[in-house]
Amino acid sequence: MRIALFCPSYGGVGGIETIAAALVHEFQRAGHPITVLARGDPTASTLDATVPVLRLPLHQLPRRAIHLVPELRFRRRLLRATVTLRRALAAARAEVVLTLAVSTYAPYCAALARRTPLVLSLQGGETRGQFTSRPRALRTALRRATRVVACARSLAPSARALAPEVASHLVVIPNGVDPDAFAAASGRPHPRPYAAAVGRLVRQKGFDVLLEAFTRVAARGEPIDLLIAGDGLERTSLPAIRDRLGLAERVRFLGTLDRDAVAALYRGALFSVCPSRWEGLPVACLEAMASGRAVVATAVDGIPDAVLPGETGLLVPAEDAGALATAMSALLADPALRERLGRRGEAVARERFAWPIVAGRYLEVLAEAATGR
To answer: What confidence tier does 348 reach under pLDDT thresholds 50, 70, 90?
Structure first.
């Protein structure tokens, strides 16, 4: 089965990019030729590589249709890009398209679905994006898709509410993780015990709430630091908040780390924290679990699909710094609890979220779409 993956940000750093790279690896390992359609300078395309990547000048759908000039500019560019995308599909002889780009690329997905069976994967950006700001574009893409995948149970009702027709061909397939890569890592050296948090430095991830919570933990005299890995729009504002709260000696921002460094960060941590305001099913939670670390996380969207309260971690309400601080202090005070949650989290990661299992389910759906079943 010849597969085309439409992922505009392919090759970048983030959860979607990690998911895309893992699926490409697993699809190729199973013997399925794959071509990636991504955003970028066409001269940067690598069609002769092991993973052919065709880069195109793609543009995001404006957040609001009332912005007339950006909307007209997007529509004009969309026509040219769609023609190029369709030619790329024909050249690759793709039998089916999998898209991990929905929130601001829905019109491209809808256009691709006119010519080739398309499996549309909802990854969570829609929770605060196209379900509310540009619902018509996403509705069209959902209706034209041959199959729809939601990475979390919480996304399925929203998709059905927007486009009731998808109910018969919508399935929940979680995101995945490579358990061996994280379980085998050595811990990151650090002079004091620490908690770890990994994610893009954007409002969605709630790191400002984490800093407020950590202030309360530090005020209780807890002997622990906080290490945060990632980059993003808040790379300046978050350190400023840290300094204002008097946490400069206790909180470090590490910037972007590669997978091995992230694995070492988790393995050296007492536990991991995921304070997101909204999510799909964050890869950071799965990686922490695969590392054998308990997770303190917010009970939003797809997080409870993986972080099972009292079993693999502790859940708190979003934007509740007090509850987040209390949960962190509870893990600090109970090493046996940390050990039990971490051990169970590693087992769950292997049983339910290992990439070969997840990719196998995707391949079943892609085969159904390609053959018209």
So the answer is: very high
pLDDT(7) > 70: yes
Give strand pairing partners of 87.
none
In order of 50, 220, 223, 271, 326, the CA distances from 332 in angstroms are 46, 11, 9, 9, 10
Concatenate the DSSP letters of all residues of 51-100 into one string.
Answer: S-EEEE---PPPS-TT-HHHHHHHHHHHHHHHHHHHHHHHHHT-SEEEE-
Q: What percent of the chain has pLDDT over 90?
A: 77
Domain 3-176+354-371 has CATH 3.30.420.10: no
* Burial tier of 150 (Cβ tally within 10 Å: 0-12, 13-18, 19+): buried
Q: DSSP H helical segments within 191-273, as ranges?
A: 207-219, 237-244, 259-268
Q: Encode pLDDT of 110-123 as tens digits.
A: 999 988 999 999 98
Q: Where in the chain is CATH 3.40.50.2000?
A: 3-176+354-371, 179-352
> Mind listing the pLDDT tens digit for each residue in 277-336?
999 899 999 999 999 999 999 999 999 999 999 999 999 999 999 999 999 999 999 999
Architecture of domain 179-352: 3-Layer(aba) Sandwich (3.40)
